[in-house]
Amino acid sequence: SMTFEKAHGLQIFAYQLRPQSTGTIMIRSADPREGPVIRPNYLTAEEDRRTSGQILRYVRALCAQAPLARYLEAEIAPGPAVASDDQALDFHRRFGGPVMHPAGTCRIGTDPLAVVDPALRVHGVEGLRVVDCSIMPSLVSAHTNGPVMAMALRAADLISGAIS
Q1: Mean pLDDT of the chain
Q2: Under 8 Å CB-to-CB from 101, ≥6 apart: which residues?
Q3: What is the largest CA-CA distance in the chain?
Q4: 37 CB contacts (<8 Å, ≥6 apart)?
């Protein structure tokens, strides 16, 4: 695992905002105490693997620009030995982690695969609404707090009858 340096420094984390790899989450049993089977399938899409090297090159180019470059002595991780796209991908597989904001497991819509309707009601379950990132039909290119707050305000209006 990676450890933090003892000396002053900085960390730059860059990641793909809309990864293409698709995972699964499945119910393991009828017992609600048993956790689900989660298979994230990170880096299974070609686009995600290709982006790994692009991200590393971008961060290095950014760090080479003034005025930032004058404050940097050395790249600690992954380090200059990691140069090719394959090496970058290997580094990200070993030390990377999910930073994106997963969404869409209960996506909103009117098609047969949608879980909630435009009023945030779960199809086929009376009295239940979902108001969180899981209803987003696609990922936002930002932190999800703002969009979820907007959803919550709309849900409050829908539930109170202020709008229909």
Answers
A1: 90
A2: 133, 139, 140, 143, 144
A3: 61
A4: 24, 25, 26, 27, 28
Does residue 147 contact residue 154 with C-beta atoms inside 8 Å?
Answer: no
The radius of gyration of the chain from alpha carbons, rounded to an integer in Å, stands at 21
Tokens of 43: 């880096």
Per DSSP, the three-state class of 61 is helix
Residue type, 154: R
For residues 116 and 135, what is the distance between their CA atoms, to the nearest angstrom?
A: 7
Residue listed under structure tokens 């140069």:
83
Reported as a pLDDT band with limits 50, 70 and 90, residue 2 is: low
pLDDT tens per residue across span 89-141: 999 999 887 776 778 888 899 999 999 999 999 999 999 999 999 999 888 88
Residue numbers annotated as active site? 101
Q: What's the angle, vertex CA 102, arms to CA 84 and CA 126, rounded to 5?
A: 160
